[in-house]
Amino acid sequence: MALSVSVWSLAVAVSGCFDGTTRTPPGEAQARRSSQKPEKSSNRSRGQGEGRPSDTVAIAAVGDTAMGVTPTLPPDPASYFAPVEGELKGDVVFGNLEGTLTDVSESPKCGPESSECFAFRAPPEYAAYLAGAGFTLMSNANNHSFDFGEAGEEETIRALHEAGIQQTGLPEEITVVEAGGRKLAFVGFAPYSNTPSLTDLDAAEDLVQEADRKADVVVAAIHAGAEGSDAQHVTGAEEEYLGEDRGNPEEFAHRAIAAGADLVLGSGPHVLRGMEVYRDRLVAYSLGNFSGFHNFTLEGALGESAVLHVTLAGDGSFCAGRLASLRLVEEGQPVPDPEEAAAHTVAALSAEDFGGTAIRVGPGGRLRAPSGA
């Protein structure tokens, strides 16, 4: 029987799960509170988020984010994200910065005789455009963060910080932010020496456990999996791209959650992948391309994009969410997609790849956990 509005509202208040747009039936949410994974320690501080009951945190997240490659840059970078700025809102707004923000011009990655080599850089001042769009935290754990060597990476991080954007993704780096009255720890993982390791699972577990000791909620950002339009499925096995080990995203996510992670945000494949709820925690295996002025190929699945909105309970468990469907048009600019192709794609991929643990995607991209997850 459907809940009346008044009973529903009371139940939402009691469960503490509300994101302003999406509600998960609170009886289900409470019943799913993990018996498999213990709650965060009760001696941690509790706060009251704006416009929501206490003990919730709202996160907006996107995938691979770029703004061109110097000198091929948007003619009006200040308005580049304007079509989707309304979606880039939350206690934390997160993206994977696919590239660098630097004036360093020589890339150790691409020599003068190299071909088919991609080295991404935009001017350092472009960090202000990311901040203006709403981003508050970016991951540098990816295969393009070191395109211009150590100097380029350092300038990128400095530019982000000067623009008021925090970052994560350096070796052993745990970035703790205050949001929604709670402490959130972000850790970025990728299969490279200048990032926390995606492929050394024991070391990754240790880092997640350390993050869990420092914060109420732990978010693991992973740059994992094969790339391209034929890489939309999570295989459950080790994945490669151009001979490079890109890890086993499913094994990594499950072990990270067992170690204390509360949300896993994926990037790297450049296409959307399915989502599942594992031990009451949401795993988004790939959020696809978010933006790229001539950075990425946009045909078919490569042009489907999204903003993930997720609300987590105080113990880090998944409360509710919404997947805002976007499409990359013309020169890699994200715009809202009224056809909601991304939501349909994620729904289908989730069901095919995860069965009983697959996220459920409803009208408007609303997300809910499967019964019994």
Indicate the topology.
Elements: H1 5-15, H2 26-32, E1 56-65, E2 92-97, E3 100-101, E4 121-122, H3 127-133, E5 137-139, H4 149-162, E6 166-168, E7 175-179, E8 182-189, H5 201-214, E9 217-223, E10 240-241, E11 244-245, H6 249-259, E12 263-267, E13 275-278, E14 281-284, E15 289-291, E16 304-313, E17 318-329, E18 333-336, H7 341-354, E19 360-361, E20 366-368
Parallel strand pairs: 1-2, 1-15, 2-5, 3-4, 5-6, 8-9, 9-12, 12-14
Antiparallel strand pairs: 1-16, 7-8, 10-11, 13-14, 16-17, 17-18, 17-20, 19-20
Helix pairs in contact: 1-2, 5-6
Please name the defining characteristics of this protein.
single chain, 373 residues, alpha/beta, Purple Acid Phosphatase, chain A, domain 2, 10-stranded mixed β-sheet, 6-stranded mixed β-sheet, 7 helices, 20 strands
Give a quick summary of the entry.
The protein is of the alpha/beta class. Helices cover 21% and strands 26% of the residues. It has helices at residues 5-15, 26-32, 127-133, 149-162, 201-214, 249-259, 341-354; strands at residues 56-65, 92-97, 100-101, 121-122, 137-139, 166-168, 175-179, 182-189, 217-223, 240-241, 244-245, 263-267, 275-278, 281-284, 289-291, 304-313, 318-329, 333-336, 360-361, 366-368.
